[in-house]
Amino acid sequence: MTTLLPNAHFTYTMWIDGHAASAKSGQTFSRESPAHGVKVGEYPLAGADDVDAAVAAARRAFDIGSWPHLPGAERAKVLLRAAELIRASKDEFALIETLESGKPIKQARDEMEWSAALWDYAAALCRHLHGDSYNTLGAQVLGLTIREPIGVLGMITPWNFPLLIISQKLPFALAAGCTCVVKPSELTPGTTLRLGELLAEAGLPTGVVNIISGYGEPAGARLSEHPDINMISFTGSTEVGKAVVGSSKSNLKKVELELGGKNPHIVFADADLEAALDAVVFGVCFNMGECCNSGSRLLVQRSIAQNFINRVIETARTIPVGDPLDEQIKIGAIIDGNQFQKILSYIDSGNRDGARLRLGGKALNRENGRFIEATIFDEVQPEMSIAKEEIFGPVLSILTFDTTEEAIRIANNTIYGLSAGVWTRDIDTAFTVSRSIRAGTIWINTFMDGYPELCFGGFNQSGLGRELGRFSIEEFTELKTVQVHLGPRTGWWARETPTMPGTV
Ligand code: NDP
What we know:
Blueprint: E1 10-11, E2 14-16, E3 19-21, E4 28-32, E5 39-44, H1 48-63, H2 72-88, H3 90-101, H4 105-126, E6 132-134, E7 141-149, E8 152-156, H5 162-176, E9 179-183, H6 190-202, E10 209-211, H7 216-225, E11 231-235, H8 238-248, E12 254-258, E13 264-267, H9 273-285, E14 297-301, H10 302-317, H11 337-353, E15 356-359, E16 363-364, E17 371-372, E18 375-378, H12 385-388, E19 395-401, H13 404-411, E20 419-423, H14 427-436, E21 441-444, E22 463-464, H15 469-475, E23 477-485
Parallel strand pairs: 1-5, 8-9, 8-11, 9-10, 11-12, 13-14, 13-20, 14-19, 18-19, 20-21
Antiparallel strand pairs: 2-3, 4-5, 6-7, 7-23, 12-22, 15-18, 16-17
Helix pairs in contact: 1-7, 2-4, 2-5, 2-6, 3-4, 4-5, 5-15, 9-10
Bound molecules: NADPH dihydro-nicotinamide-adenine-dinucleotide phosphate.
């Protein structure tokens, strides 16, 4: 079955201070479907003045609004209602994301369910955020460490999982009592813009969430440097993440970053190879490989390498590529011309550097769309670009190893540290490897599963801070110490032994 391509494009507005808004300049920009080559969306083009208006609204909502002070139970009701509304909009949202991003529509529907589940989970956290108390400081002292919302957040998101990634941030920041300005990628702003009205319907007070659409420069950059923003939560490339850190210096705002990865997927000879096979192909083909968690490096133990690699190739060969509106398709279109050329140039570099191309390697000739077939290189050496750099496409680089130590060394030979997969039936090997790899998530005998309860983030240049799980809400808080003195206080001049000053 194939969903019909709509006859007309969608038109969107921004959401500022509780209202639908156009850009002050009146300018708009548009998006063409990467799979169909037709216009699918038109959006306001925010300038720095629109960002300023959105930040001012969020600042007011934080400084004099009710949201930061509401009981957790009240905030939870809004988030739960938002989750219901996301589920109710699932088909429309999935269509929007497939048209803008080229991802398979069946997968897009699943992503809407996963997104709603994050709002549900964050709702539960609203009622669990708490600090600490110290009843051990002496009879006259009670110490409290309380958590307060950090303030106004700027959130900047990429194009690969639009609603899912904003759902990893926004409900958690709202649960903590923060207010927000959100800027989605210019390539996929549709579902994020739709969230404004949806959240108002869920009961979110005016100004708590403001959503702008525009380019990284000037909109994203203005948000990152804005003096009235207390924290930036950014997901995107390592390169732009570093620029955001630079801009954040203006007022020393806190920065949380979810960046790129070059994730190793390690298969030992004793593994359940049938299960590993499926996971390896899924790991590199999911979302066309445009995935920060992509298992783009396969490290396979030499004794089983030849057979296992042959089977990976035969399986990957059968993955259907094409129109993402077709329910059967697993690999849709590549997001834009730049990314398309980038993937093809990595394929060229693999060929030039002497890796052996075993599958694919070509753009697929489809009318009006940009598609690349699943591509597999073996005989890849650790120093080759395709072994070290993030390609963000359906391209697998296969390396071999003999010993556990060698597998760990190759796995850690990267500037990144987002995630890794380990396949073995030996518990010693599984835990030795998972404790030795410098990455934020390790999957043992599975790959790319996720749960709202489990935190996510990167080591090294894959990021700063963590999203999801109970710790993520703490990222959006400031800790404050409150000391209470009980009974009469002895004056400074009268003390024989002065008490230690807390800080000087
Ligand atoms: P980019 O870094 O190019 O863009 C991310 C966001 O930043 C976009 O909204 C972009 O706007 C904006 N932006 C661009 N320039 C600036 C600037 N100077 N200041 C502030 N914001 C700016 O990433 P992509 O959208 O290309 O996404 C792909 C990258 O995201 C990959 O490297 C991937 O690994 C990473 N990623 C990481 C994830 C994680 O959780 N670790 C998850 C998903 C992706 P615009 O769209 O207008 O350019």
